[in-house]
Fold this sequence. Notes:
CATH class of the largest domain in chain A: Alpha Beta
Distance between the termini of chain A: 14 Å
CATH superfamily of the largest domain in chain A: ATPase, nucleotide binding domain
Largest interface: A-B, 50 and 50 residues
Strand content of chain A: 15-25%
Oligomer: homodimer
Amino acid sequence: MRQLAIGVDIGGTKIVAGVVNREANIIARYRTGAHSGTLPDHVIACVEGAYKELLGGSGIRPEDLVGVGLGFAGHVNGRAGIVITSSNLPGWDNVPLRDIVQEHLGVPVVLEHDTKCNALAEHMYGAGRGVDNMCYVTLSTGYGLAIIIDGKLYSGHIGTAGEIGHTVIDVNGPLCSCGKRGCLMAYTSGVGLARMAFEKIASGADTILREMYGGDPVRLTGRLIAEAAQNGDAVAREVITTAGYYAGIGLCNIVHLLMPELIVIGGGLTRIGPMFMEPCIQGLKENVHPVLFESVRILPWQLGDDSGVLGAAVKAFVTFDEQAGSK
Amino acid sequence: MRQLAIGVDIGGTKIVAGVVNREANIIARYRTGAHSGTLPDHVIACVEGAYKELLGGSGIRPEDLVGVGLGFAGHVNGRAGIVITSSNLPGWDNVPLRDIVQEHLGVPVVLEHDTKCNALAEHMYGAGRGVDNMCYVTLSTGYGLAIIIDGKLYSGHIGTAGEIGHTVIDVNGPLCSCGKRGCLMAYTSGVGLARMAFEKIASGADTILREMYGGDPVRLTGRLIAEAAQNGDAVAREVITTAGYYAGIGLCNIVHLLMPELIVIGGGLTRIGPMFMEPCIQGLKENVHPVLFESVRILPWQLGDDSGVLGAAVKAFVTFDEQAGSK
């Protein structure tokens, strides 16, 4: 049995790749910087570069590898290996990413939504060990969800299940990056934080954010808003507690629909800490029946940033082991 | 193998029971009228009456029966046999209905949410035959959802999965009967239709509904509003098309989260016809990515009103056959 997989975490602002063994150790890493706004070709080149550098730099041979797992932030048809679309990365419509990368590398490649990769990692190695029915929620640039039922990832008919970021929570609400109104991620993701902060600034609110972001929308990130809030800025603080509460509304909808035993919450926004997480739990508590609130456990992720790479590698192990077993 | 089960459909306004064979024929029926507002004891007495009458009137012996299935409209912990709460039936909080009825009748009883019973029936005998991953949506007094994954009912950790009626779709919206704001069913169920119609009447709108309902809130039902709309009342028509569109927003959230192969839509509101169903499909189409819209099939229920009784009986067959098999 081949002992290694390469997991590649293709995020909205960076790509991280790692060689992973079956004990969930990352034995080599590679990272490229922001590629936001670039074309698929550039991302494919990054994946290829990571693959070659990882093989060259660590004495690993292609015959040690079970394959490559790609975790991607966007609508993904994992079964067909196709990126349907991504609201964060322009130019990604109906791209057969799996086959393109596979042809370049000459090894088996599997594609999956990045949040589903995180979920697989937390289920096998992190906060969700031993739990059969769980959800994993990522609160970062977007608001992602992965569903594990009877110990297996549930991906739905065309592999897109879990697109909670574009569920509607405010039908008369603000425009989302997808062009629809009132999507959850328009409130509670990095995108949502920036939108709310921008509205406050534009309406003349008294806030240090105006100076901090300097008129450049790219700089108005969750991290910047958190920094302002930690420096005592009341407007930034209000944006974060509002976003936290809406994140809890998202949890409420998950509990009502799926009633998992456990929800693991990860992603960059969780690093803001209690200022974000307390209103999030409050948003859940105030919007579900007490019996439901008491019956679901909420835990933070254990693997942190590594869960993307680990999960993409786990996806490769699971997929190609199964294929080998069924031959 | 015992060849019969009794299925009992306990709705917001009536109870229907039937003796069902393994070919899905209802060979005897019993129906009681409205019990809205009565206490659990009354409902239990109805179930008991149905059981005795069905046995007495049709020559069926208790030893022919595998057991009794109860389908109930409200929050249900099917695994524990407990009614957690019901927004339509006051006085139903933490009632161990399964055990109470089982003790009265002296035969095995199983309790399940009524929508889940409908889904089982449509999956085994109706529009969902042969489909492994499907959802069943009921649009009636409430807005219910049941999820079938890999051919089995998914009920979640405490058996409450599918409570879509109380998912939030308008965080700043109107009060729902559950006491929260902006629940889906505050817009698009029988309850939602009545709420919207009442607001129009109260604000002085020109509508025949005012005279038709005569100031009695109990008479302001989906059926009455549909009747007014069919008679050309513009206000009633607007209420129905709005409710239909919101029903489509609910479908949009289901597609995003679960991406089933098929959604079967049933329940009394579907009888209104195109005036309700066309904006419903429009609400779905306008709020999901075209690839998702093209990938999901939407079909009407096939079993109609019988699906409640059939499904409760199917639940009894499945549950008690499994228990017999594992002994």
